[in-house]
Design goal:
- There is one protein chain.
- The protein is an alpha/beta fold.
- Helices cover about 30% and strands about 20% of the residues.
- It has 17 helices and 20 strands.
- It has a ten-stranded mixed β-sheet with strand order 11-20-19-12-13-18-14-17-16-15, with helices on both faces. It has a five-stranded mixed β-sheet with strand order 3-2-1-4-5. A five-stranded mixed β-sheet has the order 8-7-6-9-10.
- Helix 7 crosses helix 9 and helix 9 crosses helix 10.
Length: about 525
């Protein structure tokens, strides 16, 4: 084996051990690969040692297990059902130095070191990592200085998750539904949730447990005191008319709590599950408390794998060189030979498009004909959001696009709107936004002259989920948007993630084909291959 000084240092990060497991690998300070286990296993929210993700990262880095110099394991680790993980890990990575990284240390590293900032305030916030559920830091250069800790269970995220369950969604998985449901309600019970978190004067939230009843293990475990406050009997379902108002109330109260926690500063970096809430990110951006806000795009448990490698590079090995994340296309890619093998094995009819121009032209032709496309190109995105490589696409000029996407393809609630993708050159014509829209991390505003065009995707009459695309980030998708503009006059497409029925984002051609034929999607562009029904 080559000596360490004769080759680049390889650091492997493993995060999300309890759920949402992932791996990331860094070569000499630059992240070269990252992928979630569930995208490879096709099992949502999978925990344990993410062996498929580790193997995929090693392949993408053209490395063998024995080449790994350091593995950063992010807490919490293992569990009663996984008592021998350390033996399997040592067998898998025989030469690696093992570093154990605290959960929120990894979150903070994933946000700050991936950012473009030389100095920033850093806020991490989730339901629970180990004991901490949040922390504040000062970042400067390659140093992260801890300022203040928030300990479980005193997290605004806990209240948000309890209301998620109260409204009939799955806590820990479907908080985003409460976020979007809140757009249709009024915060009529905001004061109640603020009191539940210690009041508006409390900079650090403290949960008032008199509102909860641990003997009620479902529906958020709310107690009689809470039900009296909202005027509903404990045994009665929440009225449909009240659901958006409760969602708006908890969302507003939690947003206010996050704003107090974040404080003020020049720049702000965010990570942890709460940072996945695009409406909270927008509130921080518009608060005027910070010049710029950067959100780790994979802010949840999976993103701690990225934080683990950054933490090891800067904090353990004391390296000063910084290499912010360049994009999120960090997962596997699949070449024409592999795709062809899958299609022929499934005995499918397909057409091979020889050039990118022919590929883009065929896609735009079908979009202009009001078809809905699945677009599978290049490397898989890391994180939960599709950014033009694993996407389902439709034209906003199609009057039935939202209905078809929601009802016949994604089969999800009407209040959940789709994102719009726009090339950066056309951004100012249609939208007002921030740098965070590069990764769909915030919400943006449609200019008044174009609100009718995007009416089916508007959240509240003027706001929209927006993805800004540059040629440097994603050349092929950028060319598709530009060609759509040339042909139809509108260089904007609706974009939602290529996954169905709560499954993870598709990663490989076989999963793409299965999802295509299980849905109402009209055409699938997988690499240079075109499949139609």
């Amino acid at each position: 084996m080559a000596r360490r000084e004769d080759r680049n240092m390889l650091i492997l990060g493993i995060g999300g051990w309890v759920h949402d497991g992932a791996a990331a690998i860094m070569r000499d300070g630059t992240i070269v690969a990252a992928i979630e286990e569930d995208k490879l296993s096709r099992e949502a929210h999978r925990g344990g040692l993410p062996e498929r993700a580790v193997e995929a990262c090693l392949r993408l880095a053209s490395a063998e297990p024995g080449d790994v110099d350091c593995v950063s394991l992010v807490r919490p680790l293992g569990g009663p059902q996984d008592r021998t993980f350390h033996i399997r890990l040592r067998s898998l990575l025989p030469n690696a130095r093992v570093v154990v990284t605290d959960h929120h240390d990894a979150h903070a590293a994933s946000a700050y070191y991936a950012s473009p900032f030389e100095s920033a305030r850093v806020l991490t916030l989730d339901r629970q990592g180990d004991m901490r559920c949040g922390a504040l830091w000062n970042g400067r250069g390659n140093a992260l200085e801890p300022l203040e800790d928030l300990y479980a269970p005193d997290s605004p995220a806990v209240v948000y998750s309890r209301v998620t369950e109260l409204l009939g969604f799955r806590s820990g998985r479907e908080e985003h539904k409460v976020q979007w449901l809140s757009m249709g309600g009024e915060p009529t019970h905001k004061d109640l949730f603020q009191e539940m978190m210690g009041g508006v004067q409390a900079r650090l939230p403290t949960l008032d447990h008199s509102y909860f009843d641990p003997s009620r293990p479902s529906h958020g475990a709310f107690g009689d005191k809470f039900y009296r406050a909202i005027g509903v009997a404990p045994w009665d379902p929440i009225p449909e008319t009240m659901r958006p108002d409760l969602a708006a109330s908890v969302h507003t109260a939690v947003t206010d709590a996050v704003l107090r926690l974040a404080g003020t500063g020049e720049n702000l970096c965010l990570a942890g599950g709460v940072a996945m809430n695009a409406l909270i990110v927008e509130a921080l951006e518009r608060s005027g408390n910070f010049r710029e806000v950067f959100v780790q795009p994979a802010a949840g448990n999976a993103g701690t794998a990225v934080g683990g490698v950054y933490h090891a590079w800067h904090r353990v090995f004391k390296r000063t060189e910084r290499a912010p994340m360049q994009d999120l296309f960090l997962g596997p890619a699949h070449g024409s030979e592999e795709i062809s093998h899958v299609l022929e094995n499934c005995k499918l009819n397909f057409r091979y498009l020889l050039t990118d121009a022919e590929l883009v032209g065929a896609a735009v032709e079908r979009l202009a004909d009001d078809q809905i496309l699945a677009w599978f190109q290049g490397r898989t995105e890391f994180g939960p959001r599709a950014l033009g490589n694993r996407s389902i696409l439709a034209s906003p000029l199609n009057p039935y696009s939202t209905e078809n996407l929601n009802v016949y393809i994604k089969r999800r609630e009407k209040f959940r709107k789709f994102a719009a993708s726009v090339p950066v050159e056309a951004l100012d014509e249609y939208f007002e936004t921030s740098a965070a829209s590069r990764y769909l991390a915030t919400v943006s505003r449609v200019k008044a002259a174009h609100r009718r065009t995007f009416g089916s995707a508007l959240l509240d009459g003027k706001r929209i989920r927006l993805h800004v695309v540059s040629r440097e980030d994603n050349r092929l998708y950028w060319e598709l948007l530009r060609e759509a503009g040339r042909v139809t006059g509108l260089p904007v497409l609706y974009n939602t993630s290529f996954n169905l029925f709560g499954e993870p984002l598709v990663s490989d051609p076989r999963a793409a084909v299965r999802s295509f034929y299980s849905s109402g999607i009209d055409a699938l562009f997988v690499g240079n291959f075109l499949l139609e029904k």
